[in-house]
Amino acid sequence: MTFDEGVLLETERLLLRPFDKDDADDLLAASRDPEIRHWMPWASAQTMQTAVDWCTAHAHTDPARAMNFAIVAGERFAGSIGIGRTDWTDGRAEIGYWIAPWARRRRYAVEATRGVAAYAFEKGMHRIELLAAVANVASQGVAEKAGFIREAVLREAMLIGSGQRSDAVLFSMLASDIS
């Protein structure tokens, strides 16, 4: 089993599409945002070259294991969402996202999360997981508004932007939750 290479997903207001070289400037700009730097361990080391490399190569990993999408609202880059840690045997994968400063509080992350989860369920996934740092209240709100159920707190389960370990809230959604 595999996700579809080059797939485009459309939601009510968003286009979720593969990254391309033209997204590198927006990716670099977002990496300079204090909120993104606080939560995302990759952000502080971002350069134009690493942004180009991400957009043209690294974001296009093996579709059997992961998919990454640029979130586009209208004609404007709004962030990123990906699905990874895919286990086709167990039917489980994990969603992660970040949103550019201008696009926050518009429910784009919620809409993109629902769209990617629906796509994963269509491809045969049974369970989608989502992790959010315990102090990242905004990300937890996205998970809940997207219909994910809070299950547990995992001790020191994720790195955040400072390079420190953080406890993480585990959320999940089952295919039966949206049927």
UniProtKB/TrEMBL annotation:
<keyword id="KW-0808">Transferase</keyword>
<protein>
    <submittedName>
        <fullName>GNAT family N-acetyltransferase</fullName>
        <ecNumber>2.3.-.-</ecNumber>
    </submittedName>
</protein>
<keyword id="KW-0012">Acyltransferase</keyword>
<dbReference type="InterPro" id="IPR016181">
    <property type="entry name" value="Acyl_CoA_acyltransferase"/>
</dbReference>
<dbReference type="InterPro" id="IPR051908">
    <property type="entry name" value="Ribosomal_N-acetyltransferase"/>
</dbReference>
<dbReference type="GO" id="GO:0016746">
    <property type="term" value="F:acyltransferase activity"/>
</dbReference>
<dbReference type="InterPro" id="IPR000182">
    <property type="entry name" value="GNAT_dom"/>
</dbReference>
<feature type="domain" description="N-acetyltransferase">
    <location>
        <begin position="14"/>
        <end position="176"/>
    </location>
</feature>
<dbReference type="Pfam" id="PF13302">
    <property type="entry name" value="Acetyltransf_3"/>
</dbReference>
